[in-house]
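A note from the maintainers: we've had questions about how concatenated examples are separated. There is no special marker in the raw files; a new sequence line simply starts the next protein. For clarity in this README we add a label.
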Amino acid sequence: MNHTPDTDDQLRRSLGIGRRRFLSTCTAVAAGAIAAPVLGASPVQAAPRSAGAGRGHALVPADKRGIILYTVRDAIGRDPLTTSLPSGFRAVFEQLARFGYRQVEFAGYGQHANAPGGASLESVQGAKLLRRWLDDNGLRAQGNHGFIPGSWPFTSADLDTFKKHLEIANILGLAHMGTGGDPTGSAYKADWDVAADKWHALGAIARRAGLKLYTHNHDAAYGFLLDGGPLDDQGRPTRSSGIRKLEYFLSITDPQLVWLEMDVFWAHVAQYKFRTYTAHDGSTQTNVFDPAGLVTRNNKRYPLFHAKDGVVNTTNGMGYDMVPFGTGVIDYTTFFSRVGHRNYHNPMVEQDNAPSTTNPGQSLEHAAIGYRNLAALRR
């Protein structure tokens, strides 16, 4: 990480923390940036994220640098009457804009009751407030992890709620509306077929409202589809042809109705976890997942990314521990170079574990680190 005295002091003062604690936080974060191989089809060494800043062109243009607000959910949810730290949507928007962000992705519309606007802004009036605060700070909202009906066929109540969220999305100026979950948690083809029918129906409603409907996926969606071989005692297949669940979903859904958001961290976890499968004939086959390859084969299906980083940990079952963006070993320079279309994709910095119980300013500190490292990516 590159720091200058002026920018560090501005950040420290805006967060209301002492210089000693700010420097110790940055030192601890930098210590996580170990040079270790990315676990996958093409092992590489992660380059220092500040290296090359000012050379070449930015892999993520300035107007495409975003953050999902889940990263700073503690700041949005804390009581502004009990702290000098930024609290609630309006103050957090102001702080994120100071860091340089130009885009945000919502993870719901709730905040602390004492913040301007009150506890819930999940309404037409609340959306108008949020839109005004976004505009005041030069921010654009790109998406939201919001309501997707669980029932299929849909109930009238679920459809009404879904349409309310579409109305809120249009007020906010969203181009996309989605969810933080997979279309189904099943490993079976028949269930993914049902999920495709459901998402086609929702996608058509969203399209009529001028929005693209997207699903955000975790590692499980990249596991192998069970689609053949001997049946179990419930009549379900037990072996695979080697097709990954989400690849199948992509192949059977209409690209004009259903889009996706790749969480690059979880895609790399899947690369670590799901390397072999049992074929229909009972043999063990190897197939290492290539996240960037999936995107390049379905490029216009991926308008959004979660840019989340990790360091190698082969003892936790995932292969990685989450760290602030740009301080880990996931090679984002190569990833963004391979997927291209830099004026189409919208990467959102995310760190699930950014909030801290001992350092209330940590999530915003890590948001600042994430912005600097996203902006430093060059080709």
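[label: protein 2]
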Amino acid sequence: MAHVDVAADDIELDEPTLVEGLPGVGLVGKIVADHLVDAFEMDYYAGIHCSGVPEVGVYRGERSALRPPVRLHADAERDLLVLQSDVPVSPSEATEFATCITGWLADNDVTPLYLSGLPDQSDEVPEVYGISTGAGNDLLDDAGIVPPAEGGLVSGPTGALLYHAEQTDLTSVGLIAETNPQFPDPEAARAILEHGIEPLTGIGIDTSDLVEQAEEIQEARERLAERMHQADEESSQAEPIRMFQ
């Protein structure tokens, strides 16, 4: 039966905020979730056993205990939950997954922040936009986060979560960051943390590690582009020749 299995009953939370980190374009949500869990040394709180989650066991280096591939971590001091995922949720079962999660959030007075990437190929600093359900628009106004300039949609499991939040009048916020669609984008994740999650929660977050990751990934992309260029120059090809009679 689909459910959220709370394993740490001793952690007390009071109307917490949840940051969702499902894998998506640019891996923005996953990078944000992993960063928060590591930076705050968050405790394992609950396993997500909802439709769409692959039945696999996840293990960590130097640890024998298995964990669910999609799970919640908690920080009681900051009243924060993070949904961390090591696997993609099946899009074909996104509706059942969203129903399972949304019901638990509503029952436990949790305000979710859903994260999504907006494909963008420019090298400009990523912009962060906000969308909302329930009373989420007031949260965005207080944080100074503007809506997207153009209309659009959020698809996949995160889109299903937003849809069910709207259908059930659950207060939620969707944070959308411009992101590179071809590579993991820690710069977009940093933008969401600094310009989205920080002003919404009031929690200070050190993002220096993400800046270093962004620089490393940019250098790796440039090296890849150079290798591809060299490969094009060295590859065999057919060319027309002038015929002499």
